[in-house]
């Protein structure tokens, strides 16, 4: 009898394997991608609270700051989100030249990237306190919110907030971009005094019917987004946008949806985890759908995407014809920016900057 025991044990072990495959996932928690460190979240909440209060006119320091500032025309805040060198800073410098009173620049540079920071005038000393970022994690949402909060606190004249990638280039002159945004008819509402008030719209892609939407919704686990975000209210869109000031305030003030979107995705759902493409469209569509155009003004070529990255343009592709083609859109607006360009495109882009890019 004892001589047969090893065979019996082996047989029982084989029988138990299917049971283990069923029970272990139920007993052990599923593996998740990295989450936001608690100290970073605490710092962010304090920053967002200050930005919200200042934008609402609260606080003695913010009120004093508003009194000290002379009257200013509306400005565009350019928010650069990067984890590599800002290779196109010289091109952007040509874009900004002569328009300092109409714009501000803010840069969130991943501190772990060891960047060679540009010393061009518009970028010098425009780097905000930053935290590490990682793809397929809510850290990219946090970085964009930090940029928005910094711009809200810095200048009450900032009326538009354009989130820009380090691989992004302008497709028009600054004057064209500025007048395109300010000329938008926006939406109208009655003020408390009964006056008709014009409100700028935000240019952000908001999509409700796309492939793999269900997988993206369940990237953190089934039913995890409930009750704050039911599936029929979940939206997707481009990572890069231009927000009106009231929407920038709305984003940094939000706590309700953030507690869901800050949750890390499951390791098994990594290929469906793009929080930065979900949070902003979902929040704005739930809060102010009529105040958004539902399309982006940043052109991206997804025809031959690899690993979730769009087509990257290289020097042989750079030409005046490419710039003119990238400007075309299906909306009433020309595209204002485009990505994704490799760093070695800088020289050929500078070669056509005056003759093509900035000649509208």
TrEMBL record:
GO terms for cellular component: membrane. Coiled coil: none annotated. It holds the Pfam family Branch. It is a single-pass type II membrane protein. It is found in: Membrane. GO terms for molecular function: glycosyltransferase activity. The keyword Glycosyltransferase applies. Keywords: Glycoprotein, Glycosyltransferase, Membrane, Signal, Transferase. Residues 1-34 form the signal peptide. The keyword Glycoprotein applies. This is Glycosyltransferase BC10.
